[in-house]
Amino acid sequence: MEWILIVFIGLAASSLGSLIGLGGGIIVVPALLYITTLGILPDITPREIVGTSLFTMIFTGMSSTIGYIKHKTIDYKSGLIFLAGSAPGGIFGAWMIKNLDAHAFNLYFGLFVLFVSVVMVLRNKIKPIPYNKESGYTRTFTDMSGQTFEYGYNPVVGILISVAIGFISGLFGVGGGSLMVPAMILFFYFPPHVAVATSMFMIFLSSIISSVAHISLGNIHWMYALALIPGAWIGAQVGVYLNSRLKSKTIVMILRAILIIIGIRLIYEGLTG
Questions:
Q1: Distance separating alpha carbons of residues 55 and 64, to the nearest angstrom
Q2: Residues with Cβ within 8 Å of residue 210, at least 6 apart in sequence
Q3: Segment 161-190 mean pLDDT
Q4: Which residue windows are transmembrane per the record (predicted)?
Q5: Cβ of 97: how many Cβ atoms within 10 Å?
């Protein structure tokens, strides 16, 4: 029974994560934490949940990237620039997790999830960071409806922001996309479809790097990882398909509600556990 549940978690998390560029860890981690409290997975620790989630996201990111390549929505240069900051941040985050106990982990992760939900609510009200087009990176993108977007940023600012995002990725096993997508849209005025696709490309690369650190620290539960991978691969393809068919506003509204529920529950467990 638990194996079917894990496969379903991987499928659902990857579908949603790939659809809006979160990677899936933001669902996998709290889901596994919750069913652990029910005694369904009694032999897995919070640090193993994080490591297993990050390792699984290698396959979510790979599957999503293959799908978004076909739609030509990935900004490869930006993905590599952000990776230059997120890689060292992710390694440091993976190292820091050893200092967290289960209750502190729930509390901090719950606060992080609530923060992400607030950022997503306010994203349309925040103006992008101004930048010098001559010294920064600029690009134009035309979506399927024919609307043209121009976006850009200062590479130094992009790297600094991605360092913080990488740290959170390694610490909480959420792939970085939970903050990277809002950051690209809020700060750099990325078109949503480009932000999602670029985030999944970056998640694919950064998850490989962060997983190396977690493997070396023994933070991967290999049996559960093998159960998550098939659902993660298929779910990522489902997410890419839905991304090109559904309105993102509807999915974002659902995600906000899910994040708030998850965040409040984890904070409660962290304070009362």
A1: 15
A2: 54, 90, 91, 93, 94, 166, 169, 170
A3: 74
A4: 7-37, 49-68, 80-97, 103-122, 156-189, 222-244, 250-268
A5: 20
